[in-house]
UniProtKB/TrEMBL annotation:
This is Oligopeptide transport ATP-binding protein OppF. Residues 273-294 are annotated as: Disordered. GO terms for molecular function: ATP binding; ATP hydrolysis activity. Belongs to the ABC transporter superfamily. GO terms for biological process: peptide transport; transmembrane transport. PROSITE patterns: ABC_TRANSPORTER_1, ABC_TRANSPORTER_2.
Length: 308
């Protein structure tokens, strides 16, 4: 059974204009998105800037309200009312943010930053709380004494580890990681990603990894959904997508991954140009009259594509 199910999710933002700030239109940030998270897996949501990835993550933790559709954790629909009446569900889904520089309050000590979610749910004595925070700091590879420092005293990679310690404190089942390493130096990106993989088993976590970086998503994820204008155009395992993508947009995105081998660059450039042409030529066929992706069609147990 799926741990979390997103069904036909829509998030439309009003666009206001003119002197009276009247609603003059809407941005369909998410426009009919369906996918599920299975226990223990890492699911990657990937797509270009503006396709609705962050909005999806925010809707899943209740930071943004859905216009329609549903999000269910096991059998419970996470409606506004359910979220209000069952605050403990917030323990189950935690989020790690893109930029560890701005997501940690610079005026607070690490002890208070990491303990904050705990204070909302558990009544611990200051001594118990300190011990628990120190224990998690050690687990994420930081010195337990560092709890008295402020965020600016840490490197980017260490700050992301503090964000992870904070997310882990409530023993969540799902972690949504929105571009967790894109603000970090390339040299520490792999360390943080490997660390996330290590703790996944230890804490039995299910990950939703959100990124525009298809190379990273390929390396990390069991299943991948490619998003375009608020919908999935294709979903599958890394093999399904990298060996036999079917939708012209998915092919184009895959062809655009930079190739590090200098001997193959020229060839890759040609392939990329070919895929871009194909994408433009098949627009009418691959999208409906309003430019939206078709419903997903099942190609195998794991592979789905929005083709006719
Ligand atoms: N609060 C808001 N009000 C109005 N429009 C919004 C709001 N938040 C996002 N949008 C718009 O919704 C669309 C999807 O944005 P979203 O941030 O979810 O995309 P994204 O795929 O995460 O992009 P990025 O990788 O750049 O963060 C964009 O066109 C964006 O401008």
């Amino acid at each position: 059974m799926a741990l979390l199910t997103v069904s036909d999710l829509k998030v439309h933002y009003p666009v206001r204009g003119g002197f009276f700030r009247r609603v003059v239109g809407e941005v369909k940030a998410v426009d009919g998105l369906s996918f599920e998270l299975r226990r223990g897996e890492t699911y990657g949501l990937v797509g270009e800037s503006g396709c609705g990835k962050t909005t999806t993550g925010r809707a899943m933790i209740g930071l943004t309200e859905a216009t329609s559709g549903s999000i269910s954790l096991e059998d419970h629909a996470l409606t506004r009312r359910y979220r209000r009446e069952h605050p403990q569900y917030r323990k189950d889904i935690q989020m790690i943010f893109q930029d560890p520089y701005s997501s940690l309050n610079p005026r607070k000590r690490v002890l208070d930053i990491v303990a904050e979610p705990l204070r909302n749910f558990e009544r611990l004595s200051p001594q118990e709380e300190k011990m628990k925070v120190q224990q998690f700091m050690e687990r994420v590879g930081l010195h337990p004494e560092a709890i008295l420092k402020y965020p600016h005293e840490f490197s980017g990679g260490q700050r992301q580890r503090i964000g992870i310690a904070r997310a882990l404190m409530l023993n969540p089942r799902i972690i949504i990681a929105d571009e967790p390493v894109s603000a970090l130096d390339v040299s520490v990106q792999a360390q943080v990603l490997n660390f996330m993989k290590d703790i996944q088993q230890e804490f039995q976590l299910t990950y939703l990894l959100i990124s525009h970086d298809l190379g990273m998503i390929r390396h990390m994820c069991d299943r991948i959904g490619i998003m375009y204008r608020g919908r999935l155009v294709e979903e599958g395992t890394a093999d399904d997508l990298f060996q036999s993508a079917q939708h012209s947009y998915a092919k184009r995105l895959i062809a655009a991954i930079p190739n590090l081998n200098p001997h193959e660059r020229q060839e890759q450039k040609k392939l990329r140009q070919h895929m871009e042409r194909q994408f433009e030529q098949s627009r009418e066929h691959d999208f409906d009259q309003e430019g939206r992706a078709h419903p997903l069609k099942r190609l195998s147990d794991t592979h789905y594509a929005a083709i006719l």
